[in-house]
Amino acid sequence: TADTSYIMGATQPGYFSVDKAGALVVDPNYASSVVLTSKSPQVVTYTLNPKAAWSDGKSISVADFAGMWTANNGTNAAYETVSTTGYEDIGSVKKGKGANDVVVTFKTTYADWQGLFGGLLPASVTATPTAFNTSWQTAPTLTAGPFKYSSTDLTGSTVTLVPNTKWWGTKPVLDKIIYRAIPPATQLDALANGEVDYIDIGPSAPNFTRASTLPDITVHVSKAPNYRHMTFGSKTAISQDLAIRQAIMMSIDRSTIARAMIGPIDPNITSLDNHVFVKGLSCYTDNSGIYGKQNLQKVNQMLTAGGWTGSPVRKNKDKVELKIAITIPSGVPTSAQEAQLMQAMLAPAGIALEIRTVPLGDFFSKYITPGDFEMTVFTWIGGVFPISGATGILTTTGEQNFGKIGNASIDALFVKANKELDPVKRCKLANQADKLVWQAGHSMINYQRPNVTATDKKLANMGSFGFTSLDYTTIGFMK
Hints:
Distance between the termini: 34 Å
Number of helices: 15
Strand order of the largest sheet: 10-15-11-14-12-13
Radius of gyration: 23 Å
Largest sheet: 6 strands, mixed
């Protein structure tokens, strides 16, 4: 989840960051250069910072890169990797000519090569599938960031990081960072009461409005690559039916949902119409076609042709009701409100939407990741590599395609896009794939979610970063 990623960002190596102009820059703490030294075959050479070392004092080396590749390239299914994208295209990882050089040679071209080896793991963690899958379940072992893991308090629901005394870069300002798990519904109260100094408001207009009135609190808003979506599962015959999925999408007015959720934050908000590119990126185009537009007349025609008739809830010839459930986490007002809006929009189409609320802590682990759902809503946190990032979500082999909905044509287009170095051609291929994603009824993008956070007004260099990278060493409190 995003929260885990934020914690890891303070403790793990990353070779590229994104500056204020949105450009990728090499992080000098970990490498003096990362260069594409050949296009055919594709070769990338990392010149590592010799000072960069794990918390046990061992230098970061080619063994760590080779282990990361081995664990994530898909050749051993016992490794429970999030995605093999990019790593599966690498042919070898070897020591280069220089003492600090790591040479990565690709067997097939991979365009988003800068996104690989971020959050690098030590070789000891990738050495075996068991180590990779289980050794960090309760706490990390070796780290190599400006902060290091200190402790977990299960009773108090906190994880504490402290400065890494062996850190070779700029000394962090903070003495410690405490991550506190608090139900979303009470996070703003915790901020107002001084229990925490920072919260992610997310797409909550009521919390945004309230936070804006709180004394000694600063609200930060920025554009971001994040988006809310409704995704389909393939758990039942109803959710497996393409015509029904398409009818559900065409029964919903996405712009109304966007305005209801984000309008007070961004009065100009409209629906997002692309699964790969968010607004603000040059490749963005509306690929939703008829499936992104509310059309109850067309829905009636489709469902009637499929044998679903009657009202207020349609039934088929076997008297089975056209009923589907949306699974949402408890204590998340945004999810509840979106589900209620969709429920009201589906009713005129003769589709009954049951809202299935499950414990927040179990939402992903017991329901979404295993595919135990028919419909659901949550946020995807985007990044600077939208095409490769979408590959794991939208292809049939993608580990984050939780509904396992898609087809070979979509897969093939993403394969081509990930191997295309020409940015114009890459955009075209990805947008062709996205049109098919809409047609396949994989998921329905609702709206681009701005990065909205609230902080203690004395907290500096912490807030809404949008597309840019967070520098954990500069976070601190104004005197």
